[in-house]
Amino acid sequence: AINGVAFAAVFLMPFRLGEFVRPNMAASRGIMRASAGLAATALERVLDGIVTTGCFGIVLLLMHDREVPAYVRAGGWTALAVFGGALAFFVAAFWWRAWTTTTVERVLSLFHGGVAKKVGGMLRGFLDGLACFKKPTDLAAYLFLTVAYWFLNGVSMYVLMMGMHIDVEPLAAFFTLCFLVIGVMIPAPPGNV
User: Fold this and answer.
1) For the chain, what percent of residues have pLDDT higher than 90?
2) pLDDT per residue over 124-167, tens digit each?
3) Is 135 within 8 Å of 128 (Cβ atoms)?
4) SS3 letters for 59-105?
5) Which residue, 36, 152, 163, 173, could crosslink 129 as a Cys pair with Cβ 3.0–4.6 Å?
6) pTM above 0.90, yes or no
């Protein structure tokens, strides 16, 4: 029920504000702390972004001999860099949690001590929430399922194109899927309008 409401919120609210619904609903029901839920949600979005933009990178490489506008290629590589950077930040911050939180608190204390402590506490809870993957095999299984999910989405788009008598190769369906997902991922308008 929480995931159903959260998915609707993500879809209907602008700028991905609906992402805050699931962590807060889970916290209000005593399932997990809001910071842990937010960390899991952020990690899910980053992994989705990495898989989608990685797929787009592969598609662009496979389309090397086709005419693709330069801004499309630049947008795909930029999205991959952004999500790759976010993943690298999460990994580094998780492995060096104490150093990360201490550094953030010290920097923010130059401006306001109370805010520094509050943000440090939130960051600590967020980074602890990243421990949702207890073992490397948990992360590997999650990544496998994410890749399988997006692969099935691409195959489904190809089947839809064939059903609408749009005669294209499967690569075009994956290009379209990645282009659409990246296109609505960043501004995330309500209802994907």
Assistant:
1) 17
2) 877 776 777 778 888 788 889 988 999 999 999 999 999 999 99
3) no
4) HHHHCCCCCCCHHHHHHHHHHHHHHHHHHHHHHHHHHCHHHHHHHHH
5) 36
6) no
**pLDDT range class, residue 56, cuts 50, 70, 90:** confident
Q: How far apart are CA 44 and CA 176, in angstroms?
A: 22
Name every residue whose Cβ is closer than 8 Å to that of residue 144 and which is 6 or more positions away in sequence: none
Residues in the chain: 193
Rounded to the nearest angstrom, the gap between the alpha carbon of residue 31 and the centroid of all alpha carbons in its chain is 22
DSSP state of 165: T
List Cα–Cα distances, 167 to 75, 173, 177, in angstroms: 26, 11, 16
CA-nearest of 24, 83, 65 to 171 is 65
Structure tokens at 169: 């190769």
* Range 168-175, long-range pairs (CB < 8 A, 24+ positions): 171/59, 171/62, 171/63, 174/55, 174/59, 175/56, 175/59, 175/63
